[in-house]
Write a structure and sequence with these properties.
single chain, alpha+beta, 7-stranded mixed beta sheet, 4 helices, 7 strands, 30% helix, 32% strand
Length: 156
């Protein structure tokens, strides 16, 4: 399902079988492996993309320029996963558009909150989430005792 263009981007609702999503996530995984170093294998186990029903891919015309996904965390909460925008597209509003549409989609599905985890070596992500109204919370679930994790919450 294609949604109306957001500035110059079209946002497409899809799932984790989408080849463009898989390609963007492959780029994300390479970046995370460099940033996280030896700790990357710990995080990778929580970032598998098989069977994700709620995925967004942003396009500039026909070129995929960003993605994000969400999974149910509990009956009232969606967890944002796999947010990524290639380096050359950063700072152009792609991530803000993807995140806002994921939040809209979560609301449509009846969720009240959105949570997410990012790493302390991801300053762009931390800035994005704060800018979009997310508040830092105590680390949840598998990230509870992980010093390099930063967890966020936003009421939808």
């Amino acid at each position: 399902m294609n949604l109306p263009a957001t500035s110059i981007y079209t946002l497409s609702r899809t799932n984790s079988e989408d080849k463009n999503f898989q390609s963007l996530v492959s780029e994300l995984n390479k970046d995370l492996a460099i940033r996280n170093g030896e700790a990357n294998s710990f995080f990778a186990q929580y970032n598998k993309i098989d069977l994700i029903k709620n995925v967004l891919v942003a396009y500039n015309e026909t070129v995929p320029v960003g993605c994000g996904a969400m999974k149910e965390y509990d009956k009232s909460t969606m967890e944002i996963k796999r947010m990524y925008v290639p380096f050359e597209m950063r700072g152009q509003g792609v991530a803000v558009a993807v995140l806002a549409e994921l939040e809209n989609w979560a609301r449509e599905l009846g969720y009240e909150k959105s949570i997410l985890e990012t790493g302390n070596k991801m300053p762009e992500a931390i800035t994005l989430y704060k800018k979009c109204g997310y508040k830092i919370i105590p680390n949840y679930g598998p990230y509870e005792n992980v010093e390099s994790s930063i967890c966020f919450l936003k009421n939808l």
